[in-house]
Please model this.
Amino acid sequence: MTQVTNTVRFVLDGQIVEARGERRTTTVLDYLREQLHRTGTKEGCAEGDCGACVVMVGTLNAAGTGVDYVAVNSCLQLLPTLDGKSVKTVESLQRADGSLHPVQQAMVDCHGSQCGFCTPGIVMSLVHLVQRNTQPDRQTINDALSGNLCRCTGYKPIVDATQQACRPGAPLKIDDSADVPLLKEIQRDTQPTLSLDGEIIVQPVVRTRKGNEFVSPATLAEVAHYLQTYPQATLLAGSTEIGLQVNKQFSRPEHIVYLGLVQELQRIDETPQGWRIGAAVSLERVLSLVAPVYPDFAEVLRRFGSPPIRSTATLAGNIANGSPIGDSMPCLMALGATLVLRRGDKTRNVPLDQFYTGQKKNQLQAGEFIEAIELPKPAVGQVFRAHKVSKRFEQDISATCSAITYRLQGGKLSSVKLAYNGLAPAPCRAPKLEAVLEGKSPADVKAAELDAAIAASFTARDGLRATWAYRSLVARNLVLEFIEQ
Ligand SMILES: Cc1cc2nc3c(=O)[nH]c(=O)nc-3n(C[C@H](O)[C@H](O)[C@H](O)COP(=O)(O)OP(=O)(O)OC[C@H]3O[C@@H](n4cnc5c(N)ncnc54)[C@H](O)[C@@H]3O)c2cc1C
Ligand code: FES
Ligand code: FES
Model:
């Protein structure tokens, strides 16, 4: 029988930490500050917007020789997801001789900090950047900082400091050699535990006396098995929605299934037709995948949240959450993406443009989950365009985001697929607009026809982000822009 257990094991600066007796929804930020007194990591917004809480989370690399890091918003990440991983906070950067990391020293030298509240998060985002790129240009630095708000210093001295820190030969790489053997020691099992009669037993990270659990399976079979036993269990992928629900709505799911360590869900497989993107693949990895083939999709993803959000957030989480203004869905719908849904040992494929049945309603049945997203490769002659309209360039919610695919045959538009978010209760295709475009030469498409099709397709509704007059105008102008270029 499964025992009551409540110990999360992770590595912090050359030591194994055993976090005992914490709730399954305790955030990494709260644990670091309240239990470990690592108060360098700050809480600003507790909703992933300000970046004051950024830390680096590490996993043992595939060869077992080093640590791969992601920068995350610790306010959104739940403590049990750290089991088997390592963490670096701003306190980790201090060297044995007391000297600062080159990024910290350059922040001092370039006056990159005033009140200092944002500084630890900014430093951690930058230290993460320079682990992979020791000569970042200004645009790369700006992108890396897009999830860190500083209200008093201004960004110029911070960007200058980063460039100054990256002088040739600077010791930018953090020393994590002591963490590697400990990470090996606390690795989670990669195979399911089986009972004597061959039944899968999903071992919890946290299990309370009431029977509430946080499980962190390693295999797809375990996820499917667990969801058949507990169909109401909450799936946890990148935690950028769930973390908000925990912090702002005090959500306390009884059963949480973390997908981040499931090997099959971490994979991107290429087929002759396209790519099969596992449900736990981060948006940063999707961005790298689509950048050469669908640059506009990559640009939409570059403007999706911020690097710490994208380092954990997933396409499957975006799709399952089903927000009317979810940004990945218009691109995926226009490109003809299909979802692979799994329940037990059975799978079915559902085109994404048929997945939603209403606001935050979809075709998933009890115990069913998204296993993968199938993204087709570009067809010969296919044009793909997409654009997100929001008040700020990054870290902002769409007024609307639209995407289109078409071909030009004999100068006429054909095979048109057009999709939007922000206009309807769920992201959707726009068949009436597609019909206006199909078979016409771009020069013959009239704005008035598009306006009429928009009016006939959607219910006029003003929203917090934009009025209907603005949204519908933008929706029309995006189409004109997409077919002009
Ligand atoms: C600061 C901030 C900025 C953001 N910016 C944007 C933005 O620009 N554009 C945008 O569209 N969104 C944005 N979001 C929303 C969020 O980041 C996305 O929806 C993200 O893709 C969610 O993915 P996740 O893996 O973090 O989901 P999680 O939080 O882990 O889960 C979200 C939901 O999906 C379910 N779920 C997860 N995986 C599966 C699965 N495999 N099968 C079935 N159900 C599953 C979960 O149970 C949960 O209900 C932002 C959020 C924050 C906090
Ligand atoms: S506290 Fe603001 S992003 Fe975490
Ligand atoms: S130094 Fe004050 S918020 Fe950045």
